[in-house]
Amino acid sequence: MSTIIVTVSRRLRCTCVLLALALFAGCKPGNETGPNPTSKPRVALVMKSLANEFFLTMENGAKTHQQAHAADYELLANGIKDELDVSRQIDLVEQMIAQKVDAIVIAPADSKALVPVCKKAQQAGITVVNIDNKFDDTVLAASGVKFPFVGPDNRKGAKAVGDALAAKLKPGDGVIIVEGAPNAFNGMQRKLGFEDAMSAAGMKIISSQSGYWETDKANQVVASLITEHPELKAVLCANDSMALGAVAALRAAGKQTQVLVVGYDNIGAVRQLVREGKILATADQHADRLAVFGIEYALETLKTKSAAADRETPVDLVMAESLPGK
Amino acid sequence: MIEPRTRTAPFASGWRNWATDYLGLATALGLLVLIFSLATRHFFSPETFRTLANQIPAAMLVATGMTFVLIVAEIDLSVGSVLGLCGAVVGVALTQWRWPLWAAVLGGLATGVFCGGFNGWVSRRWRLPSFIVTLGMMEMARGGAHAVTKSQTQYIGSTIEGIAGTAVLGLSFPFLLALALVVAAQVILSYGVFGRYMFAVGGNEQAARLSGIDPGPVKLTVFVISGMLVALAAIVDTSRFQAANPNAGMGFELQAIAAVVIGGTSLLGGRGSVVRTLFGVLIIAVLNTGLASVGARDEIKRLVTGAVIIAAVIVDYYRRRLNQRQTS
To answer: How far is CA B287 from the centre of its chain?
Structure first.
């Protein structure tokens, strides 16, 4: 009995407080409604794994850009611990909706699972810009939304790397591909790009296996395949960490001069190897600018209220000649 | 349900027990090699085995430490992250702090010893399950690895190459070192006083205490040994790749536990053998290499690896029953 009374009175008290707040808010002049006292737009950057060097570079690039343009916008950068932690990223987007940000720039951890929550954001009047990992087209169509994708064409980039490699090989030479994690869209695109280049030049793809983006896994795969297929002429890796593993495997097998290696991403650790020719080529997607491209696009959209169209960002081929000397 | 202690000492109980102890695992390993040799062109070749031997030292070292930890009825989930951290310290010490090689290697070893000691001391001091403490260390060490390297892979180059260089017959120095350590560890387990203490503490801590063995120092020592072996593994891998990646060793703890369990070491403590763990490491390594040589699809690789782990443990169950019947 007494509990019910307490509950009722509590609820009443709550209602009173809420009413008072509502009245108070209503009485206030209308120019200050949110927690945002200035008219600077607030942009939320929702990243994938900050444990990954590539995404960290992206985030740091965005932070530097914001500091240089502090008058133009506010930046809220968030990332998940593990690239596969999809539910945590969904939570993050929901928090950003609750915070009433003006725009969300997102690198989705899953190209399908993040669509519904981003749709919710869009319905709440937030500009959503997709970077890095493109949302799945069929899911977008099925849920009747569109988000502009601002980012590099991984397939084109990988094709360029593959073409550079093909120029050093003879038609019919055997090559292997070390793929990224099997569920990653960009990894799939890079694999397709490598395949495009290899089949165009008439190379023989002996095997294509996943190295899960990691040095030691790639090392194991390449070491196994080099013994099984001594005729091997080149290894195409979907990222540079795996290229490091491939180089180590070739060194251990004493085949560094016979087998060429290419990578992707142009991380700092491979620059020396590219200069020495131990890695023939890699691709630079300008990781430090990828998030910035997305943020700039979001700011433009906020200003002009323009319709959403995709925008392709540059990918550069990196070889020994294109690197500045020691 | 206390099992007879005699079986824990493989060398001590006659060649017959010795044979039953290793026969099952050796057969499983032989079978795998046979299957892959038939399925591929070049699997059964000296190069394959040399490559394998040079790839597994890190796994051997970590799994040896893990065997010790499981024997004293504890667990160490932090080995993968600590491996990443030790490698990161070595890498950054060489590339950015410009330390000489010996100092960087010592720094890496000290890091591993510190992490292991921390695990052992904290779980002892506050009577916490090592599962929780090492879970915390797993996060801290990974965070540390990223902090030290600023999340950038460190390319070291040939400065560190020497450590993983070949010694005799194309076998690398790390492999010989790991092999020597496995033998030493098994001798300690089978004949050493400390080995007997470990089995006693892991089998029944209360009984061990009542018979005058203080479990505290024993467990602390085991965690320090594990940390040091992990650090050695990190140095070996860093040298092999000539690069230190802050994400190195991700998921390594589960691979190490799998190898130890395939070798028949009990998760409940009090029973185990390092030589059998070596068989576990070999089975996993042959499986990985073989499946890659065959060109198996990724999902198949994972299905087969998981199934082999379970099958190996089932086989071990029957081996133990057979052994028990022989002794009773």
So the answer is: 17
